[in-house]
Write a structure and sequence with these properties.
Order of helices and strands of chain B: HHHEE
Structural class of chain A: alpha/beta
Oligomer: heterodimer
Largest sheet of chain B: 2 strands, antiparallel
Number of strands of chain B: 2
CATH superfamily of one domain in chain A: Amidase signature (AS) domain
Structural class of chain B: mainly alpha
Radius of gyration of chain B: 23 Å
Largest sheet of chain A: 11 strands, mixed
Low-confidence stretches of chain B: none
Low-confidence stretches of chain A: none
CATH topology of one domain in chain A: Amidase signature (AS) enzymes
Distance between the termini of chain B: 46 Å
Number of strands of chain A: 11
Strand content of chain B: under 5%
Mean pLDDT of chain B: 87
Number of helices of chain B: 3
Strand content of chain A: 5-15%
Helix content of chain B: 25-40%
Strand order of the largest sheet of chain B: 1-2
Strand order of the largest sheet of chain A: 1-3-2-4-6-5-10-11-9-7-8
Shape of chain B: flat
Largest interface: A-B, 73 and 53 residues
Mean pLDDT of chain A: 96
Radius of gyration of chain A: 21 Å
Number of helices of chain A: 15
Distance between the termini of chain A: 9 Å
CATH class of one domain in chain A: Alpha Beta
Shape of chain A: globular
Chain lengths: 484, 95
């Protein structure tokens, strides 16, 4: 078995049987990063010595038994750098505390190995907005890995991370998971504490896993989930056992497909995969029906009011005083704030701050922000009605496969529309998962994912449905590299 | 979005945009405005908005003191600090 490309469960079994030591897994990953990441550039940092030192104290009986997990670079892990893909923080900020997700993973036996590239402050859908480096798609190095958790998805797909954490505000876990052919899950809003996640849009952000299998995603989520007094929006809902076990059919389960899903807006290669996935779900005993989500047609517009509004507020903390970049010789406080921010933020972050400032400004607040909040409330109600007909909502994860590098960097709107199908679940706060569902038929086939969205806090049933699909299809066993 | 309004927004946002950025952002933000303008025409009644937090009940934690970051840890990432305090440009003139 190649230790750098196996699942968490299979490696944990080997560790518990004393057939391998997690030190060997760290070493195998470090070798693979050295061999492959100069091309993919998913990692901003991978401190092998630190990981090897950490792993010496591992406990084989913990759920992760010392296994290394890589982390998106906007989640604080004590003593690790945390740049958020920004010049503002790169080389200037070391996390002084652990995010709650990191505390729980550490307690469960995780070793933290690797900080992963991302769009600056999680704003983007291609990872090209990282101020530090461009990550490429392991399936085709001329294409993007998706974003904003593009480093996380690319590393898992490339076999340089066993599993990784990402964050999802409008699709930033699921869309790159689809582009890179891995599993990516956004939990219900409030399911995983946001404490220690650098805030982009606080009413939408969630930490979640990216992995090779549904079981691995479930394991990580089960460890991280649960109420946290440090996050006032974390929910007190009990956390069920989430790892699905064996699921082979979907009898009695109904998947709703939104009538508003514009097939014209979906690439033919993605539609083909989606339609085949629908046929496969039927063959497992599931029923498919139409559901109505009319407000979803306004979801992207509402998102690009709400998220920038929250971002403009959240990013006010980057002022050159407490951490990060500080301009040279500021004349006064205003000059300090203004020039530090101008020098530290990249174009997409500036665009969203400007947009957020605009929609919150006097005279426009009601027209834009209040209306967007109404759209959001309406969408939540429509989902509630849809779930009275269907157990899950099914769409493609993204309307297209991975697009070429540089294709959309000058046209923000075309980039924003990449999250057409993922944004509604964020606005409604619902759990949603992308699972590999096939490939385009291009000369260089690209992975395509389907997205399954469930009721709030129904992660266990959502993961079971995803597992039934995964365990009866071959797509999660395809790799962009030749297996050694 | 006009150049004038963009310059004003930049000032409110504490951003010191140069002429090139303003020129590029003007066109890009115009296209974004076209996207988000689609919701302005929606005639949604006031009671559409549900202000209650949708999924979480208890917003406040117990009022108990817990250890936090010490001054040294809090100041460790500061770009400029002195005597365990953040340094900022002088605000008041004091003789």
């Amino acid at each position: 078995m190649d230790l750098s490309t196996a699942s968490l469960f299979s490696l944990r079994d080997l560790i518990r049987r004393k057939e391998i030591h997690p030190r060997e897994v760290v070493t195998a990953l470090a070798e693979r990063i050295a061999a492959r990441d100069s091309g993919t550039r998913a990692f901003l940092q991978a401190d092998t010595e630190r990981a090897l030192a950490e792993v010496e104290n591992f406990d084989p009986e913990t759920p992760l038994a010392g296994l290394p997990i890589a982390i998106k670079d906007n989640i604080n892990v004590l003593g690790h750098p945390c740049s958020c893909g920004s010049r503002f923080l790169a080389g200037k900020y070391t996390a002084p505390y652990d995010a709650t997700a990191a505390v729980r993973l550490r307690r469960a036996g995780a070793t933290f190995f690797g900080r992963l590239n991302m769009d600056e402050f999680a704003m983007g859908s291609s990872t090209e907005n990282s101020a530090l480096q461009a990550t490429t798609n392991p399936w085709d190095p001329t294409r993007v890995p998706g974003g904003s958790s593009g480093g996380s998805a690319a590393a898992v797909a490339d076999g340089t991370a066993l599993a990784a954490l990402g964050s999802d505000t409008g699709g930033s876990i699921r869309q790159p998971a689809s582009f890179c052919g891995v599993v990516g899950m956004k939990p219900t809003y409030g399911r995983v504490s946001r404490y220690g996640l650098v805030a982009y849009a606080s009413s939408l952000d969630q930490i979640g896993p990216l992995s090779r299998t549904v079981d691995d995603a479930a394991l990580l989520l089960e460890i991280m989930a649960g109420h946290d007094p440090h996050d006032s929006t974390s929910a007190r809902e009990p956390v069920d056992s989430l790892v699905p076990g064996s699921v082979e059919d979907l009898k009695g389960i109904t998947f709703g497909i939104p009538r508003e899903m514009d097939r014209e807006a979906v690439a033919p290669s993605v539609l083909k995969v989606f339609d085949e996935a629908c046929d496969h779900l039927r063959s497992l005993g599931a029923e498919l029906c139409d559901v109505d989500l009319p407000a979803s047609t306004h979801a992207v517009a509402a998102y690009y009011v709400i998220a920038p509004a929250e971002a403009s507020t959240n990013l006010a903390r980057f002022d050159g005083v407490r951490y990060g970049l500080r301009c040279e010789s500021p004349a006064d406080t205003l000059d300090l704030h203004t020039r530090s921010r101008e020098g530290g933020f990249g174009p997409e972050v500036k665009r969203r701050i400007l947009l957020g400032t605009f929609v919150l400004s006097s005279g426009f607040y009601d027209a834009y922000y209040q209306t967007a909040l109404k759209v959001r409330s309406l969408l939540r109600r429509e989902y509630a009605t849809a779930f009275s007909r269907a157990d899950f909502i099914l769409t493609p994860t993204a309307p297209e496969p991975a697009f070429p590098l540089g294709d959309r960097t000058s046209d923000p709107v075309s980039m924003y529309l990449s999250d057409l199908f993922t944004i509604p679940a964020n606005l409604a706060g619902l759990p949603s998962i992308s699972v590999p569902a096939g490939f385009t038929v291009d000369e260089r086939p690209l992975p395509v994912g389907i997205q399954i969205t469930g009721r709030a806090f129904a992660e266990a049933s959502l993961l079971r449905a995803a597992k039934a699909y995964e365990s009866t299809t071959p797509w999660h066993q395809q790799f962009p590299y030749k297996e050694d | 979005m006009t150049r004038l309004s963009l310059e004003h927004l930049a000032k409110l946002s504490r951003l010191d945009l140069d002429a090139h950025e303003i020129s590029v952002f003007e066109g890009q933000l115009d296209r974004v405005m076209t996207l988000i303008d689609s919701i302005r025409s929606l005639d949604l009644p006031e009671d559409t908005y549900d202000a209650a937090p949708p999924l979480c009940a208890d917003l406040l934690r117990d009022d108990e003191a817990h250890p936090g970051l010490g001054a040294g840890e809090a100041i460790a990432n500061a770009p400029a600090a002195a005597r365990e305090q953040f340094s900022v440009p002088r605000v008041l003139d004091v003789d």
